[in-house]
């Protein structure tokens, strides 16, 4: 029988992955709970998953494509902004949902022990479901508009995984800090909003002012969007260093998130 | 490799209370303080919830953890179940620890009974296979099978509690920690739960049980530890621990006499609590006299609540002035006389706790007074002792035989 030794927390470190694996059922139950709750007692239910990106993409085509007349790399603007939104949401929705997750489950955190990491991590499930539904719709539209992204589409799961890792890294760090400082809950949505406009999500990189273009090129999220659009719409491939840079960025954010989370994990019950 | 279920060495838990920030609850104040004293280090008061506790628990033991409010019982359980981390020391556990800390914590009101069983089981550390295997047993034990697909928000509180307890009671962990949960449900369910808990210990697993209900500790546990203000005062038999608990009462009473040692906000403190008689016979009325000062700063009326406890700490009666619609005006002092009628106490020693409350507790004076009930039975016949050995109070009863 394996013995468990409990000692005071010290220093930095990575969480015990064996422990997390043995408690994976919690992740699944939390994830399905969130999904069930979101659509229980709603009239159109899961249709909301479809309506939200559609309306979003419609508005962006109208404002950025129609009014501002920004370029969209040759594909229909609606398709262009829908691809952008779906990819962006992989990153942003994970942050939005995981950051407040510990605080909204505080009754559990202060009363039962389980690997706390599973609380923010479980939000990935509902984001995946939303994305899957949105993607189904997107594929239909690809046929309707007759756009063929070609073989780069095979890389889509890689970009999706990296986007989730980056989002979860930030979200985990934010959720751990929010246990003590609720301010994070107010600042974070605003930061994500600013990032959204600073990153070419609803417009193409070519639409950025030429003299500021280098600033956009330095944003790792720009690399993410370019990689996604290459895979989803068959637009020009981003330079290789940007793809590698995005992968590195995602891994670093996830490592940062895990470290911060691990640092605060054992004090959660005392300060929440 | 140790052979014990639990070994605890030099365990301490210290909470840091921020001294200066008491009263700072606005961010503008916090920023202003920082500007005024840019280099001030935050000053902390340290509170030792547990200090330097050592003990061992062999397998198959049901260990009772006894102590007064604030003795560190719940903190100890939280450390053993890993909810919070120790400040110093080391805990060595011989297996998984399942906890039954507060019934229904992992329940979500919008989910159905079935979904909640799976969610709660997972939270308590069961794998999906384990939950599936025990699912029928859990449902059967709880007696809510007809409502399995109803959201638990539509359950009665009794059903809710029964289902939650059932999930936890079917945990297969080697060590099971329980905090005051047997006091749920109706009498039948309580008896069933108690029997279930005893089975757990019989299987060679280990049970940790925290309670104020000395009755259940005596019923359930095979050994006990006694905690007093964060230190371990006794480890051994249940009776021995209860003995220490009783004898600590006088010392406790002396410290509680000092208002600063008492819990509550302190906006109004009792001046004095005296008893009509220090000894009485079982059928006598119990009379408690309370002296309350004026508290002109206090807004709104307050009420009083008075507990009568037996020497094992079981609350025999709660006399709450709200039940009579009596609220007191804080702008002037009061002398209050509480008369408890028709309560036939068994011979023994009793203590009185007095609480002054509004929305929260203003003053909690536990052990404010103590009295003895003389061994004179109010019944016409004298019989052997086993005729009165059971029961918490004496009753005024009749047998009408045709």
Automatic annotation (TrEMBL), chain A:
Keyword terms of this UniProt record: Cell inner membrane, Cell membrane, Membrane, Transmembrane, Transmembrane helix, Transport
Keyword match 4Fe-4S: no
Family, as annotated: Belongs to the ABC-2 integral membrane protein family.
InterPro entries: ABC2_TM (IPR013525), ABC2_TM_bact-type (IPR047817)
One term of GO molecular function: ABC-type transporter activity
Pfam families, alphabetized: ABC2_membrane
Originating species: Agromyces seonyuensis
Membrane topology label: Multi-pass membrane protein
Lineage, uppermost ranks: Bacteria, Bacillati, Actinomycetota, Actinomycetes, Micrococcales
Name this polypeptide is given: Transport permease protein
Cellular component GO terms, alphabetical: plasma membrane
Transmembrane stretches, start-end: 43-65, 77-96, 117-146, 158-179, 186-205, 240-261
UniProtKB/TrEMBL annotation, chain B:
Domain (ABC transporter) ranges: 33-254
Tree of life domain: Bacteria
Organism ancestry: Bacteria, Bacillati, Actinomycetota, Actinomycetes, Micrococcales
Coiled coil ranges: none
Name the record gives this protein: ATP-binding cassette domain-containing protein
Alphabetical UniProt keywords: ATP-binding, Nucleotide-binding, Transport
InterPro entries the record matches: AAA+_ATPase (IPR003593), ABC_transporter-like_ATP-bd (IPR003439), ABC_transpr_TagH-like (IPR015860), Bact_Polysacc_Export_ATP-bd (IPR050683), P-loop_NTPase (IPR027417)
Species of provenance: Agromyces seonyuensis
GO molecular function annotation: ABC-type transporter activity; ATP binding; ATP hydrolysis activity
Pfam families: ABC_tran
SUPFAM superfamilies: P-loop containing nucleoside triphosphate hydrolases
Family per record: Belongs to the ABC transporter superfamily.
PANTHER family (alphabetical): TEICHOIC ACIDS EXPORT ATP-BINDING PROTEIN TAGH
Entry's Gene Ontology cellular component terms: membrane
